[in-house]
Design a protein that fits this description.
A: mainly alpha; Rna Polymerase Sigma Factor, Chain: A; Arc Repressor Mutant, subunit A; 2 domains; globular; B: alpha+beta; Jelly Rolls; 9 helices
């Protein structure tokens, strides 16, 4: 089945320590700085893959952290939810809000995977061309995914969210998450079918 | 393609230098007013003021706690923060939250509540799960649910809302200790009142419920009085609530234990085991008549003992209540892909005994000529969804009950 296309990997367990989070909850600046710096790359990665690599990613990331800092005192340190999952849920919802607002004029996210990015070291010009084609195929396929499908896919494949966490973040039933992931993977799988050589 | 390759192929934006400084500057300058509406940062309550300061003095907290404890006669754990006038909580485990300054909610695991207040007014939106509210008199307090609203002037009451995302969850009756039959089984909203009075209102009906009473709202939107386990047994409030909680925990533990066993068995499974299970299951119990998502004439039924008939009716009713709503979603998703899809599928599963609950095991869809739907996503959805159902334990002396359940599917 197509679902098997993308290998799933467990994200590293790199949560901030409970003592740091407790200091964040008390409003200690050094701890809050550590909190932001610890999670900023994940938040940028998530937002840029949901809304595209636009200038507003920085604004959305700032907004995510400001909201999180305000709500942190109420975060249940001993609860089942991981801090990173909670933070990325805030980012996801902010990102999807932006997507919805601009849905009418949304263009395909051709800027989300530009072919002139720094390329990995590949020996020959032919390989570089193939790699560029691959990125182009992914960009086109991803750009065609509906916002919610793309968000579910990004949360699952890049941030290790389980079905329940995705359902909670997107506020949809688990079965709908399964369907969205299935369709997103299927579409990307089709898009990649022509470019299997360079990546497998 | 693994994640690293995918990340290389689909690069993300990186934070620019000084990002954390900009965030912290902005947090310092953030206004004290509650945030504008929009997307909610669910998972933890929003505080109404900036958190860029040490925790507030404990004096206020102690006064507040004393006032609420006196008013409600309750012992509750307070959060070490000022009660938020505006918040959003999905309880990952049982917890107590303060709603504004005159109400406290004890949330069960999975409950989702949002609240906002202004002056003495407080409105709570409870989307799912169970919450017990203790409210001081002093202004309007209302709980809005998807199935009706509950408004009070000062009381202690419990609201249980069926989870619209998990219609296959445990039945309201079993899970929440409602002893009245009939309407309770299909209840979407259940309210019991410990003290004071509440008014339950739906689009067209309203019902006042007093202390010691309970009521439910079903799919027809009509509030009806119910007898509670507490009222029926004559137990004291606290003892009945505790007994009910312990029972809920036992049921949840039984389900978890079995899920762990199933995962373990799946890991150890060898090829061929599935076929053996299927033939054993098919032979064990006569199939209930085909059940359609739309009505069809039933075949004549053979004679059964009253107990056999009761058990058969119980399984059929439970499958209807817990599984069909989810199965409908599976089928609707299939129709979105294949608008003309329809036909018969035969579900086979076992109800395995545990001390406290019957849990589902070995679910499969029969693979034969009579089954006309082969879509793999649909079949996976149908079988996985069945695992969410919870039944009464098999009869004493029986290790398990096996069920073969044909279902007819046709577009509306």
């Amino acid at each position: 089945m197509m679902v098997a296309m993308l290998a799933t990997e467990e994200p590293p367990d790199d949560e901030l320590g409970a003592s740091v989070v407790a200091r964040c909850q008390a409003g200690e600046e050094a701890a809050l700085r550590a909190f932001v710096e610890h999670h900023q790359r994940a938040v940028f990665a998530l937002l840029s893959r949901i809304v595209g690599r636009h200038a507003e990613v920085e604004d959305l990331a700032q907004e995510t952290f400001v909201r999180a800092i305000r709500a942190l005192p109420g975060f249940d340190l001993h609860g089942a939810a991981r801090l990173s999952t909670w933070l990325l849920t805030i980012a996801t919802r902010l990102g999807l809000d932006v997507c919805r607002k601009r849905s009418r004029e949304r263009r395909a996210l051709s800027t989300s995977a530009p072919v002139d990015e720094a390329a990995p070291a590949i020996a020959t010009p032919e390989h570089e061309l193939q790699r560029a084609e691959l990125w182009g195929a992914i960009a086109a396929a991803v750009g065609e995914l509906p916002d919610d499908q793309r968000a579910a896919f990004v949360l699952a494949e890049f941030h290790g969210f389980g079905l329940e966490d995705i359902a909670s973040a997107l506020q949809i039933p688990k079965n709908t998450v399964k369907t969205r992931l299935f369709r997103a993977r299927e579409k990307l799988s089709r898009a990649l079918a022509q470019h299997r050589g360079p990546v497998e | 393609m693994n994640r690293k390759e995918l990340e290389r192929a689909w690069p993300a934006a990186e934070p620019s230098p000084g990002f954390s400084d900009r965030v912290l500057d902005r947090a310092r300058r953030a206004p004290a007013a509650p945030e504008a509406s929009g997307s909610s940062d669910a998972g933890s309550p929003r505080t109404s003021g900036p958190r860029w300061r040490p925790a507030r003095p404990l004096r206020w907290l102690a006064l507040s706690a004393a006032a609420l404890a006196l008013a409600a006669g309750a012992v509750v754990a307070f959060e070490a923060t000022r009660p938020a006038l505006d918040g959003d909580v999905i309880a990952a485990e049982p917890r107590t939250v303060s709603l504004g300054e005159r109400a406290v909610a004890e949330l069960s695991s999975g409950a989702h509540v949002r609240w906002s207040g202004e002056g003495a007014q407080l409105e709570v939106q409870q989307d799912r799960g169970e919450a017990t509210y203790r409210v001081e008199p002093g202004g309007r307090f209302a709980v809005q649910t998807p199935y009706g609203s509950v408004s009070v002037l000062g009381t202690v009451f419990r609201v249980v809302v069926a989870d619209p995302n998990q219609p296959g969850g445990e039945p309201m009756k079993k899970r929440w200790g409602i002893v009245g039959a009939g309407a309770s089984l299909a209840a979407l909203l259940f309210v019991s009142v410990e003290r004071g009075n509440v008014r339950i209102a739906t689009a067209e009906h309203a019902l006042e419920v007093g202390a010691g009473e309970a009521a439910s709202v079903g799919a027809d939107g009509v509030p009806r009085r119910e007898a509670t386990a507490q009222a029926a047994s004559g137990a004291t409030g606290a003892a009945a609530v505790e007994a009910e909680r312990q029972r809920n925990r036992r049921v949840a533990d039984a389900v978890r234990r079995h899920a762990a066993k199933r995962r373990e068995a799946a890991r150890a499974a060898k090829p061929g085991a599935e076929a053996a299970v299927a033939s054993e299951t098919a032979a064990a119990e006569p199939a209930p008549p085909p059940v359609m998502f739309r009505p069809q004439p039933q075949n004549p039924q053979p004679e059964r003992t009253p107990e056999e008939q009761r058990q058969r009716d119980y399984i059929q009713r439970t499958v209807h209540e817990q599984y069909f709503p989810v199965a409908r979603d599976c089928y609707n998703e299939l129709l979105a892909r294949q608008p003309k899809a329809g036909g018969r599928v035969t579900l086979e599963f076992a109800i395995v005994g545990d001390a406290d609950a019957g849990v589902v095991d070995r679910v499969s869809l029969r693979d034969d000529d009579k089954d006309s739907i082969e879509d793999p996503e649909f079949r996976l959805c149908m079988t996985e969804s069945m695992y969410t159902a919870v039944f009464e334990p098999p009869p004493p002396g029986a290790n398990e009950t096996t069920v073969v359940y044909p279902i007819m599917l046709a577009p509306e």
